[in-house]
Amino acid sequence: MAWSRTLVDGRPADSIDIADRGLLYGDGLFETIAVRNRRPCLWRRHLARLAMGCERLGIPKPDTSLLATEASTLLDDADAPAGVLKLMVTRGSGPRGYAPPLAPRPRRILSFQPGLLPGPFPVLPDLRQGADADVRLTICATRLGANERLAGIKHLNRLEQVLGRAEWSDPEILDGIMCDTRRHAICGTMSNIYVLDETGICTPPLVHCGVAGTVRGLVQDCATALDIPFRERELKLSDLYAADGLMISNALLGLLPVGRLREHRYRAGAAPAALIDRVRATALEPETHL
Amino acid sequence: MAWSRTLVDGRPADSIDIADRGLLYGDGLFETIAVRNRRPCLWRRHLARLAMGCERLGIPKPDTSLLATEASTLLDDADAPAGVLKLMVTRGSGPRGYAPPLAPRPRRILSFQPGLLPGPFPVLPDLRQGADADVRLTICATRLGANERLAGIKHLNRLEQVLGRAEWSDPEILDGIMCDTRRHAICGTMSNIYVLDETGICTPPLVHCGVAGTVRGLVQDCATALDIPFRERELKLSDLYAADGLMISNALLGLLPVGRLREHRYRAGAAPAALIDRVRATALEPETHL
């Protein structure tokens, strides 16, 4: 379950400076990236979201080619060709206090965990089963606070997700839906959500909270390519129950139809198989040129 | 400006495991503690808030006597008798994913920074000047998101404060008022706030956001002892401007009258000197028995 190898600013390391602002304040960003054939998947989308996060937080954007070189170094030497690459960028070390250093030296942390997706839920095997997988979701009581400046980006302030994920221990449950303070469904603790209805595919806007997943953008692009209407719409929990189908996505899962939301069962086959296949093929296609 | 010495789980260290959940998710808590005569001030109040935070986050509470021993070890060997003690408790290292480990091993991190309060604003010298110090505040555009489960405790998810603090660079400005999404004033980036009016002292409730400062509790106790009415009340920015006086507090500042909020000046002497003196004497009185 441990990270097999980590590079901090390009050098092998298993620890980080105690004054790193990522630790002190969660002052940084991260990406969780699927790896196949020793190459990261959706690399460009991950880097684009990371860049957006850096821009939003005022953290100087790390050099893209440097990140690519470090990822290649890490994955070329890895124990296994497939697994999870975690890429973190923090504002680096600094003096005491919230004020960001005037000349920050951001820190790059790349870690690789070999194997398919470890953990209680055997996700990648399910991916192979495709739409037949019985994905079960719960609903979290923990709410997402609203902050326009932090919405959409994948920053390191993740206590809401930690508290949400701590609400269930049943290993059969893959994720939990989180609502904002207005009781609108926003996302899972680790996924984006989509409802299927007569109008097509709807996903919640992420203006006030939530993370704009890399696969969320891919789902939109694939839906467009397949002429499936895709739009953002505010969703209540009752909309989730009333929908023909529900899907979730993240960078390790791809796009998956949900079988059950708590005790509610969705009918099989509601999710468009062509979309799911197309997203999966792209989301799990390693990028050969970084 | 650097931390002179750090103990991680009781041992000297200047780095922390890359898999610590404090870094990965901000999954932990901290206390910023004034130190005089090699002893921490308001130690019991800091430990009480830390315990409340552990309870709220489901992190096993570190042993109090162990923390006291480690603080004594650190401060006895410190380069200077006065400074700032930072105490962090994280959920410790864990496998990938938001789910908290079933058997977490929380990590204790104690760092000492010698000297008076370093940084752009010479805070402790001002304390000596007492009510004559011209404390200037601004108002932050960054809002505080609402989350009842995180309100009041001093957790490591502090990006809102970082973004708020990044809004001004004028070293003459001590702090910035932060509002919630309903435009109620909640606190400064690093302080609690109090208005003075004909009814006494009012401070915002911290049910949805904000940190319940150790000195905030002390202000309440001292006000009660001095027969000064003290209550929680929702405050708009207009209430701050309309008030007879405004005060801020934190563990390093004690309680200070505010001279100016943006361009608005408060009349000198509005803040009750007896209260300020009493709070300062207690907040900066080292606890000899840990």
Number of helices of chain A: 8
CATH architectural arrangement of the largest domain in chain A: Alpha-Beta Barrel
Number of domains of chain A: 2
The overall average pLDDT of chain A, rounded, is 92
Oligomer: homodimer
Radius of gyration of chain A: 19 Å
The share of residues in helices of chain A is 25-40%
Number of strands of chain A: 17
pLDDT < 50 stretches of chain A: 118-131
Q: Major sheet of chain A, described briefly?
A: 10 strands, mixed
Biggest interface, residues from each chain: A-B, 64 and 64 residues
Main CATH class of the largest domain in chain A: Alpha Beta
Pick out its properties.
alpha+beta, D-amino Acid Aminotransferase, Chain A, domain 1, 10-stranded mixed β-sheet, 6-stranded antiparallel β-sheet, 8 helices, globular
Would you write up a description of this structure?
2 copies of one chain form a homodimer. Chain A has helices at 21-25, 43-57, 64-76, 123-129, 159-165, 214-225, 237-242, 273-283; strands at 5-8, 11-12, 15-17, 28-36, 39-40, 83-90, 107-114, 135-144, 173-180, 184-188, 192-197, 200-203, 230-232, 235-236, 245-250, 254-261, 264-265. Chain A is α+β, with helices and mostly antiparallel strands. In chain A, strands 8, 9, 10, 11, 12, 13, 14, 15, 16 and 17 form a 10-stranded mixed beta sheet that branches. A 6-stranded antiparallel beta sheet of chain A has the order 2-1-7-6-4-5. Chain A is globular. Mean pLDDT of chain A is 92; it is low at 118-131. Chains A and B meet through strand 3, helix 1, strand 6, strand 7 and strand 8 of A and strand 3, helix 1, strand 6, strand 7 and strand 8 of B.
